[in-house]
Amino acid sequence: MTLHWWHIVISYALTAAVFGGLAAGAALRHRAARRMLARLDPRGDRS
Amino acid sequence: MDGPITLGPGAAPRPAGGRNLHRFANPGRFLRATGRLMPLLWIAAILVLGAGLAWALVFSPPDWQQGETVRIMYVHVPMAWLAMGGYTSLAILSVMSLIWRHPLADLTARELSPVGAAATALCLATGSLWGKPMWGTWWVWDARLTSVLVLFFLWLGHAALVRAFDDPERGARAGAILALVGFVNVPIVKFSVDWWNTLHQPASVTRLDAPGMHVAILYPLLVCSIGFTLLFAAVVLARTRAAVMERRVRALQLARARREDAA
């Protein structure tokens, strides 16, 4: 693989890692908040 | 989950123009509406981005000057547009926050700034990875690169400032003022390549006469830009939904603690 392709692969991998991390972080926060709401407010609306 | 997201005790009356906007200050209504939208947004983002990236990496030709390295542009350019477009959204949310005191605008701005900072960091990193083989250097202090670096610090400053206060409403006000003051940097980023002599090339897609690139590169670039915009919106909305639920959790915990204290 040429140096140019290494730069391309690093660019795409960085982007995938950052957006993957952001999406996973949001999903984990959402799941944790949903669980807490289910415990604190069992009859609440958590659409 | 009824009732608007809690405003501080000193909240002033809101101008009538923001009345319709306040329909979505009801967290239950917001979560229901966005709950239906989220799966569609994720699916659209994955499909468009998948098609765009396949086109960019496999089917688009190498550039006659840049060779294969042009493929970095399919990430770098959308990140640059998201950095500037996202900051424009932050400024609009800040206006909504300061004029209409919309609590959801505060929360969305708070959740937007880390994502905007990430997009701007990716713009700088991919630009650097493109610059080394093309310009022979990772970085130059030219007007475009420096103004984007300033934009990155503005994003980071906003993310830090809104979290620096015990009272979230005061943090939101301070963040909104910083976002509006910092908005002056967005036209500087956009027009820096016209106003100063820069190593960074001038605008090639958004030129008024005609795009300065072949359609074999322009079309996958536009598809990638749409895909990344959908992904950006999905991430920001998912974070805002989580923040609304976390705020509800804090309110319930506070109410429970008060009840226990009173008992």
Q: Got a strand count of chain A?
A: 0
Helix and strand pattern of chain A: H
* Structural classification of chain B: mainly alpha
CATH class of chain B: Mainly Alpha
Structure annotation, total helices of chain A: 1
* Overall morphology of chain A: rod-shaped
Low-confidence stretches of chain B: 1-13
Biggest sheet character of chain B: none
Q: Which oligomeric form is depicted?
A: heterodimer
- Gap from first CA to last CA of chain B: 25 Å
Helix content percent band of chain B? over 70%
- What number of domains of chain B? 1
Strand content of chain B: under 5%
Describe what is shown at a glance.
Chain A is 81% helix and 0% strand. By secondary structure, chain A is an all-alpha fold. Chain A starts with a helix and ends in a 7-residue tail after the last helix.
Which labels suit this protein?
heterodimer, A: 47 residues, mainly alpha, 1 helix, rod-shaped, B: 263 residues, Four Helix Bundle (Hemerythrin (Met), subunit A), 7 helices
Describe, in plain words, how this protein is organized in 3D.
- The complex is a heterodimer of chains A (47) and B (263).
- Chain A is an all-alpha fold and 47 residues long.
- In chain A, 81% of the residues lie in helices and 0% in strands.
- With 263 residues, chain B is an all-alpha fold.
- Chain B has a single domain (28-203, 217-247), classed as Four Helix Bundle (Hemerythrin (Met), subunit A), CATH 1.20.120.
- Chain B contains 7 helices and no strands.
- Chain B has helices at residues 27-59, 73-100, 103-135, 143-162, 168-182, 185-195, 215-262.
- Chain B is globular and about 75 Å long.
- Mean pLDDT of chain B is 87; it is low at 1-13.
- The A-B interface holds A 2-5, 7-8, 10-12, 14-15, 18-19, 22-23, 25-27, 29-30, 33-34, 36-37, 40-41, 44-47 and B 1, 28, 31-32, 35, 53, 57, 67-69, 71-72, 75-76, 79, 114-115, 118, 121-122, 125-126, 129-130, 132-133, 231, 234-235, 238-239, 241-243, 245-246, 248-249, 252-253, 256.
